[in-house]
Amino acid sequence: MKAKRIYLILFVVCLVLSIALAVSAVLTASDKPEGTPVFSDGLQYGKGAAFEGGYLVGGRNNTLRAVGPDGSALWEDASLSNVVVSLRVHGNTAYAASGNKVYSYDLATGARQICAERYETGGNSVVFANITDIALSDDGTMLAVSHGSSKSRHNLTLLELGSGRTLFTQSVGVTADSVEFEGEGSLLLGSDSGNIRRYSLSGEVSDVVRLSDDVADVDVYWENIYAATSGGDVVVVSGQTGEILFGASLSARNALAAPCRVTAGEDGVFVGSSDGTLYAFDLSLAFKSEVRFAGDVADIFRSGEQLCVLVSGQGMFSYPAEALLRGASALFWVFLAFGIALFVAAFVFLILRFPKIGSAFRKTGHVVWKHKTAYGMLLPIFGLLAVFGFYPVLVAALRAFTDWSSSSLEINFIGFDNFRMMITEGYFLTGIRNLLIFLASYMVKILTVPLLVAVMVYSLVSDRSKYAFRYLFVLPMVVPSVVSALMWKNIYDPNFGLLNEVLALLHLEQYQTSWLSNPSTAIPALIFVGFPFIDPFSFLIYYSAMMNIPSSTLEAAQLDGASPVRRFFFIILPMIASQIKVLIMLGFINQIQDFNLILLLTKGGPGTDTYVPGYELYLNATTFGRYGYACALGLLMFVVIFVGTIILNKVKVNQEVEG
Amino acid sequence: MKKKIVSLALAALLAAAACTMAACGKTGTPGTPGGNETVDNRIVISTVTGTGIPQAFQAVEKGYEAIHPEIDVVVELKPANGYSQWLSNEITADDPAPDIVDVSTMAASSRGRTVNYDEYIDEISPYSNKPWREQFDYEAQIPNPFAEGTDSLSFERTQVVWVYNKAIFEEYSLEPPKTWDELLAVCETLQSNGIQPLGISGTFDGFYAGATGHLFQIYNDQVTREMINAVRAQEGDYCYDPEKDGVWEYDPTDPYNDDAGYVTVNPVRLMKAIQDGTYAADSPGTKFVTEQLHRLLPYYAGGENYYGTDYPQSSFYRGDVAMMVEGAYAVPRYYAALEKELAMAEDDPNYTLSIMQFEVGTFNMPSMEGQHVLAPARTIEVPVGFYGIIDKGKENTDKVIDFMMYFSSKEGFTLYQQALIENGGVPTGSVLIDGVELPEKYAEMYADLVPIGNCQKSPCQTIARGAANDVQASVREWYTYTQDFFQGKIDIDEWARLHKENVMKYFADSLRAAGIGYNDLQYPQNRPTGN
Predict the structure, then answer these.
(1) A545-550 — which CB contacts under 8 Å span 24+ positions?
(2) Is A301 in the same domain as A350?
């Protein structure tokens, strides 16, 4: 008894500790480096840069402002015509590219001058087209400008600052978003063709490397080139050989990753992505940490040992670079390991305290082991069922509450908005009305003619005749339903269809119409498809059920003087009641989902007169790309079918024969 | 014992099968980042099929593989029905199968996944030894302003015209109309004599991608032409080209005035114009166009039958309708069908022709006239083909670009054209490939065509069929209330109200499809970021 109490106490203690350690591990893993907000004003940003007295920030509202290290305003230029697409700092001067001009700013006062707006080519002085990036040589004497008005008319121009002399201008042939000086003797240009090209100061060009996607940004550190592509890759390229030394795929971590900026230094490599994430790597691109923001990362840049991040819609944050590169804490693993160990210990103490639990586990294990072959053979089936059956349904059920669509990579929870749209949009409600009509007519069709025909065939005296008729009535089953539907489409054709032709022959031209596009005849025309409604499957079910009725019962009834009608209603019908129930259930399930005829014959038209929920689901999933809404429709249909099936299952069928 | 061994073996087999199936598909391992993507040696062509087209591509396949035996060109064409849905599924897959597709039906939201030909067009083509852009009429291609480039190449040109039965016209002494009122007068004469004037599709497909939709675009262009002034690139815009935009002047009398070669459209300004109502969906001009079209449809197009008509060609061939609105290729197609019928009749004296024999004529879009009309009617006069390449990485693109260079060469396209004709197809129109001419027979059929300008390149019919950028849910709504108007269930003011509501309801979707954000609209001179 004492031992049992000890075991219980140990169980509780171990369990509590393991939970506490698990929570600690989670908290440690999600522990992000602390960033300091420099300022937060909720604006959209372009580019940023650091200088000795603070930071420069270009806003997408076509402004450029200087702020102090604490975010306090220093000066602002609100008279720009375009957003600042590139910022460089040299000494007390900042250079900002906006529109088709490069401006220089006195960092102390904010005084602005046009630094460059034209270049020489072919003996002519030409204004820059739209500038995409600029780069400044280390000594501040040369300015490289990447500019162009279209993909095919893009140029790289190198100017001598001060004199404005054009050192070279080269056609690039494709938009290039990133230019950097590589030491003192050359330039690197990253373009939308995936190429990183090297240009000498006289304009000679050579290929360095070809990447798999548009080059979003390029940086140079030591002798290596660090590049980020719009496809989510980051690479380190040897500046000497052009060989890709290291690579990391951000899209493997986050499908939305779209790198826009990369900066490399002695401590590591940082990448800002327009999905709102800052990634930190060491120089061999081993992943260290990531920080997620609510808005897009517009720009990242260094300020001493700090890494500054401009986040659109939020503001600017400053992080110690070293903290970002620290990586996952070792404590996480320690907590995790001890947490698991304590959990196992808790389980052991539980079994020791409650031997019956252990015994139950042992018994179960014994049974499973005894029938291991059977369980082994069942396991793959259940595994496949789980993966291809249950998992997609579960995901669809969850996505029904999201705005999942083809036009946006993000998936956001939106509650019951999709279900509200079913009511407000109107198409779904129209579909419900039509569905009820189709459902009712389908039930009438399967409960009447096939049953009557089955009784008639069953009543035939000759076995040969029975066989022959049975064969003939079931034969249409092999005709694909698509073929049958298209045949009826031709029958209903307003110009040369059989139905209108027959009416013409009978001099009933006044009844000719466009059967499938006349609002008053479209639904009846669809219901009429399949005339004379001898559904082979229903016929087979009824006939098979009747074959199982003991002939002695019917003979006895006949001898007692029961008429064929009485025999049908009081013997045959009750004895096939369960099959009728199955047909009703299958018909219900099928009709809720079915839209084949609508798709083939009317596509929901005329207008939306023949819409059904299944067709609405199909359109949203395939044509409109509103996947979340389609999931919601599917979930609702599933619930209706599920509830309906349960109700139908509860209906008891009386198979007793009344005397 | 034997049973046990067999059972265990079966269990192991099942387990292995399950593991294999689970391993199939995406493994989650990204490709080696940077430039070492795995590129196979296949080029899969999955454009829209048609008579003679598979054989035509197979001829190009053979020609190309003779030069590049290491490449396996696979021709897997798809039917037109359901093509846009199939393409939409492919383009959003992680690893799309096709390389070359028909991008004309591609939703604007997917256009960013196709290759921009502008990046390659100045490369030297090994099949002509000159820049690729000089190998065919590159200036005739229609750029995609949202993609800042050209992602669709076409090597033939056609125009939408009114195709008519000359015999019927002669019987009733009718002349091809030049104005809309003249057209309605012609229709009235035919109708009163028991001839259905016009065969045209009134189904959803007809409204969106067929002749009815074309008419909405064509005639809305007449009343919105001046919108180009509001949506063109202004000085200082990211896409402003001083050499082009700096000298452009608006001239509504010139049908080519707003060609991409003369003026640049700023897509942000276009969306802004829609947002602030400058380009209004319920303008008097738009109402006027819809009312005028209602004078034609459905009354002169078979009445209620209009809504159920999918393919009016058979009625036209039988002489049941006098006119169709179709691409000019309808003319050679009719004669090709007639030739087949006559050949069958020659073999079998009892054969009854299912096609009436008559001469086919064409006339251009009759212009609407009135206070709201700003310019004469243009038509849909476009290069056709719409070959786009799905972007699967630069190396793969290089391979496919090389094939496109071959296809668009004199050798490649000649093979295509010959095989097309030999297998019952007809050339769609004039050829845009340098050095390739139409066979004389077809050149004569197209000789009477007079180009009158293309309305589809203009952004100013963007909301003629619902919200901008082909938001399909919006197109459906447009189809619904437009049909209601045609059926007299609502009046034109209600139609206009619904149209405006529809365009604005899906405005966010339109923006997303264009990669433009609400913040971008505030500063249309800046390259959009999507925020």
Answers:
(1) A545/A575, A545/A576, A545/A578, A545/A579, A546/A454, A546/A455, A546/A458, A546/A572, A546/A576, A547/A458, A548/A575, A549/A575, A549/A576
(2) no
